[in-house]
């Protein structure tokens, strides 16, 4: 029934009756209530997120360098010349905006996942735009991070087009309650952003197996570019990934967050970033509403003494897919 509602238009009353959370409810009942405003800078600034993650012993992509001021832009070449691939991103960006990925270079031509080549001058211009706040929240001056590329696991071959697939887990009071994998497509320009055309694959919170897939809010079975059967997807190291997500509650102090993780071939699950205002499309990908799961956690009371491992075990037991 919920699947049919999500595949077609439905009244707000019907969606609410089936536990589908809307933006107003998310903002008022969960984000405002469980996320202290003073802690937002820890997740709105990717450099600060990386620092608290390192302090907590959480694995993150290697930091190649940071450019904070315009006079430092010319240092970009010295930072990246010995790295075969790297990623340039705004520290305060959102929705994948302003991220430039370079997969290879010959010291003159810097190749993007699409095959398009950039010069070092092009990349310096992009960094200048980041510093000017072109991609930041509110258009405020920003900082450019240069990170090492993730060597994503071969198990995901064919599931993503050019870009690195990532896993979004919604964590409430330390409990992972819903998950999906975001797979880049040609339409999304190699970025794992659902609004730009990436595929969202709903994952069984118990096993990490695919249970549903959507693109532009419509159900799909195969990846639009590679043809891979999306229902064959299963995320390895699933328990380890969920434990990492759960631990982000203590690390950040935020009660309602989206954790974005990737699977590196050598380092295993690693944290990409945290989001204090996670989107709602994960419900469409899972054909399930967030509200019943959130309320089940709220019924546990205000003081929950479970460890991250115990919270993960609870979620895997209580929120296993029925599809």
Percent strand equals 15-25%
Q: From the helix content, strand content and strand pairing, which structural class follows?
A: alpha+beta
Give the rounded overall mean pLDDT: 91
Q: What gyration radius follows from the Cα positions, in whole Å?
A: 19 Å
Q: How many strand units?
A: 14
Q: Could you describe the largest sheet, including whether it forms a barrel?
A: 7 strands, antiparallel
Count helical runs. Answer: 11
Give the overall form. globular
- The N- and C-terminal alpha carbons lie at a distance of 11 Å
H/E element sequence: HHHHHEHEEEEEHEEEEEEHEEHHH
Helix content: 25-40%
Strand neighbour order, sheet with most strands: 12-11-10-9-8-13-14
Q: Which parts are unreliable, with pLDDT below 50 for 5 consecutive residues or more?
A: none
What secondary-structure arrangement, pairings included, does this model have?
Blueprint: H1 2-7, H2 12-17, H3 23-34, H4 40-44, H5 46-55, E1 63-67, H6 76-80, E2 86-90, E3 100-102, E4 104-105, E5 110-111, E6 117-118, H7 120-131, E7 144-148, E8 166-172, E9 175-183, E10 199-203, E11 210-215, E12 218-219, H8 238-252, E13 256-264, E14 268-275, H9 282-286, H10 291-298, H11 308-318
Antiparallel strand pairs: 1-7, 2-3, 2-7, 4-5, 5-6, 8-9, 8-13, 9-10, 10-11, 11-12, 13-14
Structure explained in plain terms:
The chain has 323 residues and is an alpha+beta fold. It has eleven helices and 14 strands. The protein has helices at residues 2-7, 12-17, 23-34, 40-44, 46-55, 76-80, 120-131, 238-252, 282-286, 291-298, 308-318; strands spanning 63-67, 86-90, 100-102, 104-105, 110-111, 117-118, 144-148, 166-172, 175-183, 199-203, 210-215, 218-219, 256-264, 268-275. A seven-stranded antiparallel β-sheet has the order 12-11-10-9-8-13-14. It has a four-stranded antiparallel β-sheet with strand order 1-7-2-3. Helix 8 (238-252) packs across helix 11. The longest helix has 15 residues, at 238-252. It is globular and about 55 Å long. The N and C termini lie close together (11 Å). The mean pLDDT is 91.
């Amino acid at each position: 029934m919920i699947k049919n509602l999500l595949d077609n238009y439905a009244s707000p009353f019907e969606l609410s009756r089936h536990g589908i959370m809307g933006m107003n409810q998310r903002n008022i009942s969960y984000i405002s209530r469980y996320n202290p405003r003073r802690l937002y800078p820890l997740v709105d600034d990717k450099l600060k997120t990386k620092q608290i993650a390192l302090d907590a012993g959480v694995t993150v992509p290697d930091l190649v360098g940071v450019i904070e001021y315009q006079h430092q832009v010319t240092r970009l070449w010295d930072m990246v010349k010995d790295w075969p691939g790297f990623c340039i991103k705004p520290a305060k960006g959102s929705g994948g905006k302003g991220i430039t990925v370079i997969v290879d270079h010959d010291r003159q031509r810097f190749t993007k996942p699409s095959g398009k080549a950039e010069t070092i001058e092009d990349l310096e211009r992009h960094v200048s735009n980041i510093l000017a706040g072109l991609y930041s929240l509110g258009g405020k001056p920003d900082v450019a991070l240069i990170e090492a590329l993730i060597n994503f696991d071969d198990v995901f071959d064919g599931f993503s087009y050019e870009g690195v697939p990532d896993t979004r887990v919604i964590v409430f009071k330390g409990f992972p309650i819903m998950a999906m994998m975001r797979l880049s497509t040609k339409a999304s320009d190699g970025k794992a952003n659902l609004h730009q055309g990436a595929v969202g694959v709903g994952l069984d919170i118990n096993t990490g197996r695919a249970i549903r897939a959507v693109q532009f809010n419509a159900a799909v079975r195969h990846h639009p570019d590679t043809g891979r059967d999306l229902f064959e997807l299963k995320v390895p190291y699933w328990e380890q990934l969920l434990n990492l997500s759960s631990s982000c509650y203590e690390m950040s102090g935020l009660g309602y967050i989206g954790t974005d993780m990737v699977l590196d071939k050598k380092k295993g699950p690693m944290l990409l970033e945290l989001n204090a205002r996670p989107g709602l499309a994960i419900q469409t990908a899972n054909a399930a509403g967030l509200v019943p799961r959130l309320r089940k956690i709220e019924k546990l009371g205000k003081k929950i003494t479970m460890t991250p491992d115990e919270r993960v075990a609870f979620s895997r037991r209580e929120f296993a897919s029925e599809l």
